[in-house]
Amino acid sequence: MNEVRAISIFVRAATLGNLRRAAIDQGISPQAASHAVMQLEKSLGVRLFHRTTRKLSLTEEGQRLLQTVEPALAMLASAIADARSAKEDIAGPLRISAPKALGRALWPSVLEFAALYPDVEVDVRFDDHFTDLVEERADVGLRGGSPPAGGAIARRLVPIQLIVCASPAYIERYGAPRSVEDLSLHRCTGYRRANTGKQAPWEFMIGDEIVYREIAATLCTNDVDAEADAVLAGLAIGQLGSFSAVTHIREGRLVPLLTRHMTQRESIYIYYRHRTEQPLRVRTFIDFMIGKLADNGDFFLSRTELRALAK
């Protein structure tokens, strides 16, 4: 027996003075309502109603039960209403998962959202491993690479171009490679993957095929920003993601190299569970990030720029 359901039917029947009207109010048949009340009486071991063909009245035990449970049911109804209204309130906790590699690029947008909605408690956790939203109790994830698996909804934001770069100081001192093979003659950085601990190969578009090359690293790190800092300092050539390199390229701090071999097979994604299950603050953040970042040219080189660089 569903005791909460049975007590709800009992309270409505006592309030309305009629079991049939209580059944209609609860959206069930009169037979189901009568059965629920009888089961409740059997469970409690007392009669709750005096029944006649015309009238339904409470017994003394029924009156005591009504006085006890009616405030509790009102509190329960209020709590349910509060939970429903909270779904439409842009306030409360917002848990976001993102890799350190994207932190510097995406953090300004997160801060802008926090300034627009000060009642949202933004909690960003930087983790280079893929985050299972349910397991980690996160509302939204941001990731670079392929679309996240595992049943989450993923929206592509911007492409990731892997751009071979060097600083003007490096080129002045060591020269620039003219081919992929020339990289073996240069000082290069390496990126060590967080999930495997292995150094990632560099990838290139050669003809119509993506090929991978193991590049000997004179400086290796597992932090994308640290790798970019080493390239900016003129210590080595690096293959950097466009989200961290483009601003430096446009402002002349980095020079893109071998652009005809640049790849663009991955993207930055925002992923989340079904929108209909999300509070308004989560849906608002998702819409904000999509509106702010989707195909935003601040994060990648345009075809016009690439054609100009190729010349």
Describe the 3D structure:
- The structure is a single chain.
- It contains 11 helices and 13 strands.
- Helix 1 (3-16) crosses helix 2 (19-26) and helix 1 crosses helix 3.
- Helix content is 42%, strand content 23%.
- The model has no long low-confidence stretch (mean pLDDT 86).
- It has 3 domains: 3-86, Orthogonal Bundle (Arc Repressor Mutant, subunit A), CATH 1.10.10.10; 92-158 and 268-296, D-Maltodextrin-Binding Protein, domain 2 (3-Layer(aba) Sandwich), CATH 3.40.190.10; 159-266 and 300-310, Periplasmic binding protein-like II (D-Maltodextrin-Binding Protein, domain 2, 3-Layer(aba) Sandwich).
- The protein is an alpha/beta fold and 311 residues long.
Q: What descriptive keywords fit this protein?
A:
Arc Repressor Mutant, subunit A; alpha/beta; 3 domains; D-Maltodextrin-Binding Protein, domain 2; two-stranded antiparallel sheet; WH_DNA-bd_sf; 11 helices; single chain; DNA-binding transcription factor activity; DNA-binding; 311 residues; rod-shaped
